[in-house]
Amino acid sequence: MSTLATTQPAPTRPARRALSPWSATLLVAEREILAQVRSKSFLISNAITLLLLLGGIVLSSVLGGGDDDATPVAVVAGVSTAEVLGDAETIEAVPATDRGAAEDLVRSGEVDAAIVPDGSTPLGYAVLALDDTPTEIVQLLSVAPPVELLEPNETSSGMRSIIGLGFGLVFMMTAVGSGAMIVQNTVQEKQSRIVEILLAAVPARALLAGKILGNWVIGVGSAAALAATAALGLALTGQTDLLDTLSAPLIWFVVFFLFGFVLIASIFAAGASLVSRQEDTGTVMTPAMMLVMLPYFGVVFFADNETVMTVLSYVPFSAPVGMPVRMFFNEAQWWEPLISLTILLATTAVVVALASKIYTNSLLKTGSRVSLRDALRGA
Q1: pTM score, two decimals?
Q2: What is the domain-level CATH number for residue 88?
C-alpha cells in the first residue's frame, strides 16, 4: 500500500520595500563617511595637519615675541628718566651713580648702553655704547614730528596676506581632498562595475546626493577641526584680540563654506562620471581644481587690491574666501555678504541640477570618455 507524498508550498519571502530617495541618500552618505573615517591614512593625515597648525601658531608666537624683553640702559643720576625715555616699555632704566659707573656697566655687558649728562650738547645728555651704535635707543631719543594720516590703513599687507592665506588654505584643502575622494570612488566603482549593483539598489540621483552629503560632512568636520585648533592656538599664545576679531568673519566663512563645498563637490562628481579609468581622472579633475585654487591664489596675489578683492567676494567659486577676508578688514557693507550668498546659492542650485543630469546619463557608460555634450543630451 503506497502513500501519496504531499508537497508543501515554498514559503514566500516578503517583498523588499524600496528605499525612499532620502533613505537611499543617507545610506550612501553613511557608507562614504565610514569608508573615510576607518581609513588610517585619513586619520593620520588629519592628525598631522592639526599638529602642524597648532605648532605653527605657537612657534610663530614664541619667535615673534622674542624681542619683547626690555633693553637694559644705564641712566646716570641727573638725567630725567621720564623726560628722556618717556613711557617706553622696551627700555629698562638701570640707575648709575656717575659716568664711571655707567661705563663699567656697559663694559661688563650688564646694560646695552648708558645715558650720561653732557652739557656740551643741546640735549644735555649723551649715549655711551661699547662697540656699536644702539640704533633702537638712538631712535627712541630722536625727536620726530607728529604725523597725521588722512586715510589711515589699519592693517598691513602682511596681515592681509596671512588672513587670506588661512581662509584660502582651509577651503582649498578640504574641497580638493573631498573632491579627489569623490573622483577616486566614482571611477573605481565604474571600473569594477560595482556601480551596476549600487544602481540596482538606489537611484543615480540618490547615489550622487549621498556622495556629496557624506563628503560634505567629512569636509565640514575637517574645517571645524582646523578652526578649533587655530582658536586653541591663539588662546594658548594669548592672542585673544585677534581671536575676537576673527569671530564674525569665521561665522560667515562657515556659512559660505557649507554651500561652496556643495558647488565644488558637484563639479568633481559630474566630472568623475565621464571617465571609467583612473588614468583619465586628471583630465576631469584639473578644471575643478583650478576653480578651487582660484580663491587661494587670488587672495594671496591681490590681497592689497581692493577692486580685485571686491570682485572675488562676489564670484561664487571665490566668495567663501574673498567675502570673509573683506569682512575681517571692515571693507564690506552689511548687505554685501547677503547678496554674495544669494549669488552663491543660485549658482549652486544650477550646477547641482546640471551635475545630476551628467551623473545620471554617464554613470553606466564605460570605455572611452563620455563627452560633455553626450552627457547633457543623454545620448
Answers
A1: 0.72
A2: 3.40.190.10
